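Reading a protein record of the kind used here takes only a little practice. The record below shows the convention in full:
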Amino acid sequence: MEFLPITTAEDYRVQDIYTSYTTTFPEDERRGHEKFNALFSNPHVKVISVLHDSQSVGYLIIWELSSYVFVEHFEVFEAFRSQKLGSHITGYLFENYPRIILEIEPDHLGDDAKRRYAFYQRNGFSLIDEMYVQPSYGDGKKPLDLWLLANYSPENLKEIKDEIYDVVYH
């Protein structure tokens, strides 16, 4: 498996990533096209294309923050799901980032949410906040009640949430 940073919105892989991103994530859980493209010039952000057997199988959008990384989006493309690739991707994250935080839908929202939560639990993440609210991504988009997960026990959850709000969702 290869993990290739994408450093410009003009990279040929970005269109496939954006198309899948807009298909997979509901409107309230994602950035518009202009804000998505702005990620490539943000010094805190890494957009990583994931390849397996020379095929693009997914991507990560991560934010390198003060003492941890925040995984904003993590997707295995639909054609490649149920092949254990997601576990390989979390393995890559653990090898490269000792402290990881991400947000997910609460597991009571349906079978997909239950499946996602179980996946992250199997792969070393624990629930650290059930009262987390993802701020709105912009005009016409709603804030969302989500859960925060981490692969470690953060000392000061309020500081972490404030940093996510200030840097990721500013």
